[in-house]
TrEMBL record:
This is tetrahydrofolate synthase. Keywords: ATP-binding, Ligase, Magnesium, Metal-binding, Nucleotide-binding. It is an enzyme of class 6 (ligase). Coiled coil: none annotated. Residues 297-411 form the Mur ligase C-terminal domain. GO terms for molecular function: ATP binding; dihydrofolate synthase activity; metal ion binding; tetrahydrofolylpolyglutamate synthase activity. Its EC number is 6.3.2.17. Residues 48-272 form the Mur ligase central domain. PANTHER family: DIHYDROFOLATE SYNTHETASE-RELATED, FOLYLPOLYGLUTAMATE SYNTHASE-RELATED. Belongs to the folylpolyglutamate synthase family. One of its GO terms (cellular component) is cytoplasm. It holds the Pfam family Mur_ligase_M.
């Protein structure tokens, strides 16, 4: 049951702290946290950035910490079905009451800053970050696992001094903000490296890796590189029960991982290495952590439908790979919807040929008006395409098809709303308030 106070708090946040407004720089969050008594201090943090994989690595580190007997909070973005997914305590979403309390505490200080002018008014994400630190202090958590929102150097999470930093991957993304080359983007992500604090680095272009090495050297930070200092080998790929062997300072064999996809191999290694560098490892706790670690809407089956976002060509490549990996030789149908500012052609040319039937729909977003355009592009890559703009009707159509496996993919807006519908038979009031 959603409380009226929770809904009122959401309305305040969505309508006074515009959701998609980005403000770079650390002076607002530093000012806000200072007014709050610096609730981020005195906690051991894992700080994770990357073009891909950062959500998984942050999740794995939270579960590893919890299963090694510590109180830990997690901070994630964006959310899928409820804003509470952004804030974890010991691997669970916080409650509506805890969310409201944290929002009210931040509000007092944020509104004082609003009076100083637009430049000083905290953004939505800065507000969320301050709430996370308040929750962490209130819970008296020993550890925090923190996912960077965007980039690293000027991200509002970059006020922490972590035990260790993790840079998962570097590829061209958010070029309007982070730069037009992988070297520039690597520089921004390496901004989370702190003086004499180690950094774990995933596979990436040599030019990006060299930028990170140079910054680490300037910061007197030891670098641990995937493939050189640690690696992971796959043993078995099976839906919801993948098995890997880890080789680092410790060797751990037969790690069952619930999260699906070949790419998780690297994320498992990055998380384990970061934890291994900062904490004594218990093999039983490690196995329990990876067996339980979960992220909604990431190649997840809900009531017979597999949900996953394929919102850019890189994600589409992984999605297509997973189709062949987990469902070879099966007849497949999918509902697909994507927002207009994404690379529709780049996504559909990868995934459309993988389906026997595609139902093109409109994600619940103001940024998804050109559904007819999406339909025309899909028809270029698949002869069996249906247009059904209403995403609820599209899902109902999907459920009636005879194909062996059914999917919903494309925009995370679509995946989030459909997940809510499949679980509850309706769309929650929270999602309708937040809009997209």
């Amino acid at each position: 049951m959603i409380s009226a106070t929770f809904l009122d708090t959401l309305k305040y946040l969505y309508f006074t702290r515009p959701y998609n407004t980005m403000k770079l720089g650390l002076f607002r969050i530093e000012n806000l946290l200072s007014r709050m008594g610096n609730p981020h201090s005195g906690v051991k943090y894992f700080h994770v950035t990357g073009s891909n994989g950062k959500g998984s690595v942050t999740t794995f580190l939270e579960y590893l910490t919890y299963h090694h007997g510590h109180n830990v909070t997690g901070f994630y973005s964006p959310h899928l079905s409820t804003i509470l997914e952004r804030f974890h305590y010991n691997t669970q979403n916080i409650s509506q009451e805890e969310f409201v309390e944290a929002a009210f505490e931040v509000k007092k200080h944020a509104e004082e800053m609003d009076k100083l002018g637009e430049e000083f008014s905290p953004s939505f994400f800065e507000y969320m970050t301050a709430m996370y630190f308040y929750i962490t202090k209130k819970k008296n958590a020993e550890y925090g696992s923190v996912e960077v929102g965007l980039g690293g150097r000027f991200d509002s999470t970059n006020v922490i001094i972590p035990e260790i930093s993790v840079i998962c991957t570097v590829s061209l993304e958010h070029t309007n903000v982070l730069g037009n080359t992988v070297e520039q983007i690597a520089f921004e992500k390496a901004g989370i490296i702190k003086e004499k604090k180690p950094v774990v680095v995933g596979l990436m272009a040599d030019s990006a890796l060299e930028v990170i090495r140079q910054i680490a050297k300037q910061k007197n930070s030891k670098v641990y590189e995937y493939g050189k200092d640690f690696y992971v080998e796959p043993v078995q790929f099976s839906f919801n029960e993948n098995v890997y062997d880890y080789y680092g300072d410790t060797t751990i064999k037969g790690i069952k991982v619930r999260l699906n996809g070949k790419h998780q191999l690297y994320n498992v290694g990055l998380a384990l290495k970061a934890f291994e560098v900062t904490h004594r490892i218990n093999e039983k706790a490690v196995k329990k952590a990876f067996e339980e670690a979960f992220i909604p809407g990431r190649f997840e089956m809900v009531n017979g439908v597999v949900l996953d976002g394929s919102h850019n060509p890189q994600a589409a490549e992984k999605f297509a790979e997973n189709l062949d990996l987990y469902f070879p030789g099966k007849r497949r149908a999918s509902v697909f919807g994507i927002v207009d500012d994404k690379d529709k052609e780049g996504v559909l040319k990868v995934i459309a040929p993988k389906f026997d039937l595609i139902i093109v729909t409109k994600p619940p977003s103001k940024r998804a008006e050109k559904v007819a355009e999406t339909y025309e592009i899909a028809k270029r890559y698949n002869p069996n395409v249906i247009l059904e703009p209403d995403y609820i009707r599209a899902v109902d159509l999907l459920k009636e098809t005879d194909e062996d496996v059914k999917f919903v993919t494309g925009s995370f807006y679509l995946v989030g709303y459909v997940r809510d519908y499949l679980l509850n038979g309706k769309i929650s009031e929270e999602l309708t308030i937040g809009g997209a």
